[in-house]
Amino acid sequence: MRCPKCTSIEDKVIDSRIARDGNSIRRRRECLECGHRYTTNEEFVRDTLVVIKRDGRQEPFSREKLVGAVRAACHKRPVDNEQIGMLIEDVIDAVEAQYESQVPTKIIGEHVMQRLRKMDQVAYVRFASVYKEFRDVSEFVDEISSLAPHHSSDIPKPKK
């Protein structure tokens, strides 16, 4: 590692800790040239997954796209960044355990929905409405009814 102050590559590790997500290591370092202390985060490098889109196109898996979609679903909900990070890691781990190099977007979406459903039902419905491409209000009502089956008779069905 290069010292951010003097750019020397001579340093020593003072402290190492596993980060909260369990998938990275936080290291506290001290430059042997200038004595400056700084922190680094190390993550393991995953093999590149390829995502197979609904229309058959393929593209490299993008963690950032997945994080963006989950954050959008959780916007103004009582879900913090750490929970989102753990959800993303859980989804990636599950997908990598199930598929070697190519994974359909459908599988990723289903894993996200399964976890969001337990975490925050409003975020789940938001994500599901985009993922499942709801076309009208009745599809929202059906999805919400599936969340609370014992109250489904209380939810009015929209007129068609």
Major beta-sheet overview: 3 strands, antiparallel
Give the overall average pLDDT. Answer: 85
Question: Which percent band covers the strand fraction?
Answer: 15-25%
Q: Kindly report the spatial arrangement of strands forming the biggest sheet.
A: 1-2-3
Q: Cα-atom Rg, whole angstroms?
A: 21 Å
Order of helices and strands: EEEEEHHEHHH
Cα shape: elongated
Span of the ends, CA to CA = 63 Å
- Specify the helix fraction band: 40-55%
Provide the domain count: 2
Structural class, by secondary structure, is: alpha+beta
- Residue ranges: pLDDT <50 for 5 or more in a row? 151-156
User: Care to count the β-strands?
Assistant: 6
- Helical stretch tally: 5
Task: Describe the fold and architecture.
It contains five helices and six strands; from the N terminus they run E-E-E-E-E-H-H-E-H-H-H. It has 160 residues and is of the alpha+beta class. Helix 1 packs across helix 2, helix 2 packs across helix 3 and helix 4 crosses helix 5. It has two domains: 33 residues; 105 residues. The longest helix has 18 residues. The relative contact order is 0.10. The strands form two sheets. The protein has a three-stranded antiparallel beta sheet with strand order 1-2-3, with no helix packed on it.
